[in-house]
């Protein structure tokens, strides 16, 4: 089970690196838009590959534990939906939906706390990126409203 998840992470890391390689590493002798993403991508691929090799060597006699299989699949589906919805409905709304959904899985029975965190985190992200860093976040279908 660990090997399957690590292999999935390796595929995600390779996909991330291949996307990062499409941006320039340097632009006019200064780090370009691909500089940090490419470094992060290489580190992700190397560490995930190392972990996969380590897991294959150490887990030959390990039994498969399916205790959290349902939760793991649900988180993978949620992450995929988050990536797809990020540009469609915008960063803020997709982050609210993702955060609340994750909290309902792992923080069961605390509706008020989950909604508070699920709304507060995207607001903090909005203030950080839009106001302080002035980088902008995808607004999605709400682009003309905000």
Walkthrough of the structure:
This protein is an all-alpha fold. It contains five helices and two strands. It has a two-stranded antiparallel ribbon with strand order 1-2. α3 (about 70-90) runs antiparallel to α4 (about 90-105) and α4 runs antiparallel to α5 (about 110-130). The model has no long low-confidence stretch (mean pLDDT about 85).
Sheet/helix structural class? mainly alpha
Strand order of the largest sheet: 1-2
SSE sequence, one letter per element? HEEHHHH
Strand segment tally: 2
- Overall 3D shape: flat
Spans of 5+ residues with little confidence (pLDDT < 50)? Answer: none
Tell me the number of structural domains. Answer: 2
Summarize the structure.
The chain has 146 residues and is an all-alpha fold.
Helix-strand layout with pairing:
Elements: H1 2-20, E1 26-27, E2 30-31, H2 35-58, H3 69-88, H4 91-106, H5 111-132
Antiparallel strand pairs: 1-2
Helix pairs in contact: 1-2, 3-4, 4-5
């Amino acid at each position: 089970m660990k090997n399957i998840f690590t292999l999935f992470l390796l595929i995600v890391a390779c996909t991330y690196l291949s996307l990062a390689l499409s941006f320039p590493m340097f632009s006019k002798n200064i780090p370009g838009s691909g500089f940090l993403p490419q470094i992060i991508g290489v580190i992700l691929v190397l560490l995930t590959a190392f972990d996969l090799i380590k897991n294959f060597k150490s887990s030959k006699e390990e039994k498969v534990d399916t205790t959290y299989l349902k939760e793991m699949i649900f988180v993978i589906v949620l992450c995929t939906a988050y990536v797809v919805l990020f540009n469609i409905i915008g960063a803020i709304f997709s982050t609210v939906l993702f955060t609340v959904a994750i909290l309902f899985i792992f923080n069961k029975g605390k509706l008020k706390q989950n909604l508070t965190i699920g709304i507060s985190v995207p607001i903090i992200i909005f203030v950080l990126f839009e106001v302080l860093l002035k980088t902008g976040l995808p607004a999605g279908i709400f682009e003309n409203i905000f």
